[in-house]
Amino acid sequence: MRILAAFCSGLFLASCSRDPASEAPVELRAGLYQVNIGGGTIVELKDGARGGEVCLDSYSASEFPNDPVQALAGSWDGCSAKIEPRKGNAISGARTCEQRAMPMTMNYSGSIAQDGFIIHGTVAQGSDESESRMHLGSGDFTISGKRAGGCTL
């Protein structure tokens, strides 16, 4: 029993120290993904929902690391994207919307695996936000996705 407990503890610690940037790159598999968005920000799926199913065909899955926000949330009017080069399985980038009535910046980082992804980010709106003042829709968010099977577009 002690050996089993030690093994499980070691496995838990190994999973906590995972560094996606140092991993050999994998390709996200095409298919149907169950996607959930956490946090109270303006980030949502293309259909306006905070969770649901997203079908990624082979092209969309191969392009996903290049702009995951575009793949899940679509493009936003008056915004530009800055995507950092992929490092291993680590992805990151930003979206800046300076032409909006309320300027906005979104920064994110995350990782991909063959059958899933996780993205953590922050949305800031306007130039007057601080620790004591935030606009509705600003704050931290998480987007997680897990492959649930196949699909066709």
Low-confidence stretches: 1-15
Largest sheet: 7 strands, antiparallel
Tally of domains: 1
Strand content: 35-45%
Global geometry: globular
Percent helix: 10-25%
The tally of beta strands, per DSSP, is: 7
Order of neighbouring strands in the sheet with most strands: 2-1-7-6-5-4-3
What order do the helices and strands follow? Answer: HEEHHEEEEE
Report the average pLDDT across residues.
Answer: 84
- Please work out how many helical segments DSSP would assign: 3
Layout of helices and strands, plus pairs?
Blueprint lengths: L1 H15 L14 E8 L12 E6 L1 H6 L4 H6 L6 E4 L6 E8 L6 E10 L2 E10 L13 E11 L4
Overview of this protein structure:
Strand 3 and strand 4 (90-97) form a beta hairpin. The longest helix is centred in the N-terminal third of the chain and has 15 residues, at 2-16. The chain has one domain (22-149). It is α+β, with helices and mostly antiparallel strands. A seven-stranded antiparallel β-sheet has the order 2-1-7-6-5-4-3. The protein contains three helices and seven strands; from the N terminus they run H-E-E-H-H-E-E-E-E-E.
